[in-house]
Amino acid sequence: MTPREASADATDPALGFRAVVPAGGAGTRLWPLSRAGAPKFLHDLTGSGRTLLQATVDRLEPLTGPGGVVVVTGQRHREAVLAQLPGLDASAVLAEPSPRDSMAAIGLAAAVLLEREGDVVLGSFAADQVVDQGPGFAAAVREAVVAARAGYVVTVGIRATGPSTAFGYVRAGEPLGVAGAPSARHVRGFTEKPDAETAAAYLATGEYRWNAGMFVTRAQVLLDHLAEQRPALHEGLLRIASGWDSDRRGRLLAETWPTLEKIAIDHAIAEPVAAAGGVAVVPGDFAWDDVGDFASLSTLLPERGTGPRVLGDAADVVSLDAEGGVVVAGSGRVVTVLGLDDVVVVDTPDALLVTTRARAQELRSVVDAVRERGREDLL
Amino acid sequence: MTPREASADATDPALGFRAVVPAGGAGTRLWPLSRAGAPKFLHDLTGSGRTLLQATVDRLEPLTGPGGVVVVTGQRHREAVLAQLPGLDASAVLAEPSPRDSMAAIGLAAAVLLEREGDVVLGSFAADQVVDQGPGFAAAVREAVVAARAGYVVTVGIRATGPSTAFGYVRAGEPLGVAGAPSARHVRGFTEKPDAETAAAYLATGEYRWNAGMFVTRAQVLLDHLAEQRPALHEGLLRIASGWDSDRRGRLLAETWPTLEKIAIDHAIAEPVAAAGGVAVVPGDFAWDDVGDFASLSTLLPERGTGPRVLGDAADVVSLDAEGGVVVAGSGRVVTVLGLDDVVVVDTPDALLVTTRARAQELRSVVDAVRERGREDLL
């Protein structure tokens, strides 16, 4: 497979660029802060005053211009998304009847955008990541848009600050040679989360970066790849999109949505297309985190002496002889910690979690135990 | 000094015995469960369904007979005490305008009882201790009453289950030789809380027992000792007692109470009178604890596999890979603990404490920090 021809003038790299923001995922490893009814992306996890969703849109709108952002979210979160984004037109929120993973979400957005606007370049940026709001992100996206116009599926490879075992990696190959995208390279492949030794070996080569799951591509290119890789999913999404902005939407969703294959865009497109030479990577030299757990969350919060960092009102937290760690002060109560290092305390109005930074990755077991206790109301 | 003569027939050892229950103390080391407005003695700390105060009275009433218990407490706790003890006559609660330590509390009760009933034997038993409800306690008290009739100030020496550094000790000497009190011995002295090595040395002698601060004595004997040791305090208490059951009580309290010396009965009477040969000890071979901190509290709660013990509804506590420790589930929220051994989690509606069993003794520093934060409302 070779990159398809560019369909638009590339003199203004961002022209016609549209952002797709998948806002899904349970955020189980941030329970009890993140809940099924109020998942991670609806929360301010950095104390910035903006939720992850809001910060994502704040970052993208300057690049797309007004009306250039589409959010794909679950039906149950549609109202919350619109409430958090009062500048968004209701038509810019695509509500899924049920979660069908990232390929269906992004593919739906691509198909709807193709119907509405033709073959625009779109970039998919998850609503639940933390990205530095400086110029680095925009620089990466502009280059990615240029490479996308040249027919590539373009991912942003985040400069690794260490051999993380919490992220997948993307491996860069030869320079792409596309004018206006001087840093873009071919992707030699993607990897799942490695062990620590493997991660260190990756970084030693200089070829690997973190895969943030950001994909920039022309809508038609994405859908053509999908037609080749997953024809049934492609056909279903096109059928739904054909009636999205009509009175047929409800019927089409009811008939077709439940039949769609659940698959991540990484497996459906990024990996096979990369193997065929159709994926490029541009360097993303900015701070990024997917806030995968409370240990990760703690690194995003301001330091507070040697004590635990605080999400919420630090005036509500009293810590003595407690180094590191994180306290989420989320109930208005005073939280006191004495003599525990690297502790994680997450205080919400109806559920409390006490664990350690080292165990924060294992939170699923707690969520499972709460479910077994018959307390789905807390999940 | 020699023991004063018995003033009553000792054929029924419990005849005329009255119980005085000092219900005071902030219980700072059980914060945030214990508060100034709802101190330790008002709480059920064992999950028995009875508060410490209620359990204390439950234990004493069979020994005194109906109407034989007097509670001395702060004015602000009078209503709560009466609410918890509906069987108590209002006159049986002596309300102090301000805390003046245990000598004033017990001395007041002795003086009031002397006015009301003459020279009865009274025993003082703090409202905030946990005592096994089996026959051992009654057996010790009956023997103490006999020795008290013979003119001694009698303490109960608790059989030590280990070299505790959290309690003071009482050292037994020669047998008392009072008929009906075969186990009673002279007290050679009292000690403050020892270090671990000293505590072990104490136990090795076989002469030491824990000092639970239980004192049994005739009212007149106590007041005579007080007249010798602390004449001003004695005089003030007698003046107040003379008008207690009259319309002069308020005026007398207002005039005299604030002038009373603040001193513990241990220092005012037990130590000096012991040095003079006037104090006896009877063995208390029953389980006892003063619930001095959360580490101590945890040992009083039922085991729950290897996980933390729970005060409150165990259905609200989910622990995984967490051995030992204690969770006070006091807010109705679900408390989850992952991967922390010997943790102490105290969850109340407006304040949360997270610490360890090993640090539980240092809670005062947390309380001080909360006060410095301007949150006296939580103390």
TrEMBL record, chains A, B:
<feature type="domain" description="Nucleotidyl transferase">
    <location>
        <begin position="19"/>
        <end position="299"/>
    </location>
</feature>
<protein>
    <submittedName>
        <fullName>Mannose-1-phosphate guanylyltransferase</fullName>
    </submittedName>
</protein>
<dbReference type="InterPro" id="IPR054566">
    <property type="entry name" value="ManC/GMP-like_b-helix"/>
</dbReference>
<dbReference type="InterPro" id="IPR005835">
    <property type="entry name" value="NTP_transferase_dom"/>
</dbReference>
<feature type="domain" description="MannoseP isomerase/GMP-like beta-helix">
    <location>
        <begin position="317"/>
        <end position="368"/>
    </location>
</feature>
<keyword id="KW-0548">Nucleotidyltransferase</keyword>
<dbReference type="GO" id="GO:0009298">
    <property type="term" value="P:GDP-mannose biosynthetic process"/>
</dbReference>
<dbReference type="Pfam" id="PF00483">
    <property type="entry name" value="NTP_transferase"/>
</dbReference>
<dbReference type="InterPro" id="IPR051161">
    <property type="entry name" value="Mannose-6P_isomerase_type2"/>
</dbReference>
<dbReference type="InterPro" id="IPR029044">
    <property type="entry name" value="Nucleotide-diphossugar_trans"/>
</dbReference>
<keyword id="KW-0808">Transferase</keyword>
<dbReference type="Pfam" id="PF22640">
    <property type="entry name" value="ManC_GMP_beta-helix"/>
</dbReference>
<dbReference type="GO" id="GO:0004475">
    <property type="term" value="F:mannose-1-phosphate guanylyltransferase (GTP) activity"/>
</dbReference>
